[in-house]
Amino acid sequence: MFIVQQTLSSKIVTVKSTQCRTIEKMPDKVLLKIFSYLSHKQICSMSRVCKKWRTIAYNTSLWSSVSLRPEISGLHVTSLEFLLSLISVRFGPSLRYIELPIELITHTVLHELANRCPNLTHMLLDFSTAMQLHDFSELQAFPTKLRYLCVCLSEVIFMEGFMRKIYNFINGLEILHLIGTYEKVEEEEEEIYEVINVHKLKSATPNLRVINLYGINFVDDSHIDAFSSNCIQLECLAVNYCSKVTGSTMKTLFQRSKRLRCLLMNQTNLISEYVMQVEWEKSSVQELDISGNDLSTECLIDMLVRIPTLKFLSAGQMNGFNDAVLNAFMEQGNVRHLIALNLDYSDNLSDECLYKFLSRYGHQLQGLSLAGMPHITDQLWNTVLPVLNNIIIMVMGTQERLSGNVLVDQLMDGIATNCPRLERLELKWDPDNLRFSDKSQKAIDIFRVKCLKLKCLVLSDGRYYEIVKANFERADRLTVVRTTTCCSVSNYYLLQNYKDLIFN
């Protein structure tokens, strides 16, 4: 009888414990934590399940960062009235970041954000598709605690009417992004409009630390000069894909901006004469991107041997960057602080010179990108991998068809053995050039197990990609393996201001 009663009681306990494990019995704090990992679209779907989940979904802590641009994975808001109710009921004091498309940028919405969201510090305003602006003549309020502002410019709409209304509210800005239409420009020459007055904007933003002018077709050296004349706190300046920038005001820039340590000028039109006039030896620059510029060998040597503390160098797609430049950098420059190097598509560099450089300094590198050079094969990589024991980011290979083949199993085994800190890897080789055996799964297993910090592995779409992807998915690492068509790896992750430079 006692045994029967004991068995029965244990079953009751088991039933009770099982009931406590059902999701309906889960504490609100636990549900809230689970919801915090969902996108806002998913949260909205979950809110329809029951009253309790609807209450959880309305918790303002889940709505601190909101995108209302449906074309970039954001929520689609059907009307201004609905957005105004969201701001007052759901966003409130918890809102810190918001992205608004052109149709939702009105004086009423901005007034409501200023009044209801006192902790809003990050804002993105997307005017890129605008053909006509709303009327801002009645705009009297704007969020006053902004530290980050991103404005996606239109090709044809002049912004001064709107900007004049907000100048008095944005003097606390520390990070400014002005995003142009570089990726939308057609090859035909069209009239270029200066759709935003940079010279007036710089007067209203004296506290800027980070300025990113990306792909703006009217930005030239005078605009860089304007910002440097008023922004004494400037630490990072990026003018990537601003084709009118020649470097004529770079000397003045460094003379004024003593704190400037990061300068990104990828795909501009720098002139060697202007670059050589800069007093590099007196500058504080530590991170430099001059990729895609037509600078002479003499200019590159002159610059690299004079920069006192260079940590990050991106100098790909440059005919002038050859063995003489790399040798001069090794022998006369200060290389001991370098942690990131990008020399993509530098066809005038020999593998012998690169081997010499990497043998000497590879142990200190955290990022290395040597893509787009057919003569840099897996043989060189296998030789230098034992030195790259601190590497975090690597990009290798070329999309050109090679005469020889890449033994990818041996390469992956070498990476697994020598690069335990690796987080991001991209192999750009054509799938037809990759050779692997029936035992390839074992090499991938070893790579996956030893490189536990790996966040991203990018491969060209093909049979090897499918094998690697399936291997990682079986180990529940679903988001690691990606294709070159939708993802690329860059040393930019190692920039000190990387998080500040992210937009869109």
Could you name the key traits of this structure?
single chain, 504 residues, alpha/beta, 18 strands, 13% strand, globular, F-box/LRR-repeat protein 2 isoform X3, F-box-like_dom_sf, LRR_dom_sf
Principal-axes shape call: globular
**SS-derived structural category:** alpha/beta
Percent of residues in β-strands = 5-15%
Q: Give the end-to-end Cα distance, rounded to a whole number of Å.
A: 71 Å
Helix content: 25-40%
Which whole number gives the mean pLDDT?
90
What does the main sheet amount to? 16 strands, parallel
Per DSSP E runs of 2 or more residues, the count of β-strands stands at 18
Q: Which stretches of 5+ consecutive residues score pLDDT under 50?
A: 1-20
Number of helices: 19
Please state the CA-atom Rg, rounded to the nearest Å: 27 Å
Strand order of the largest sheet: 1-2-3-4-5-6-7-8-9-10-11-12-13-15-17-18
What does this molecule look like?
There is one protein chain. By secondary structure, the protein is α/β, with parallel strands linked by helices. Helices cover 35% and strands 13% of the residues. The chain is built from 19 helices and 18 strands. Helix 5 (80-91) runs parallel beside helix 6, helix 8 (198-204) packs parallel to helix 9 (221-230) and helix 16 (408-418) packs parallel to helix 17. It is globular. Mean pLDDT is 90; it is low at 1-20.
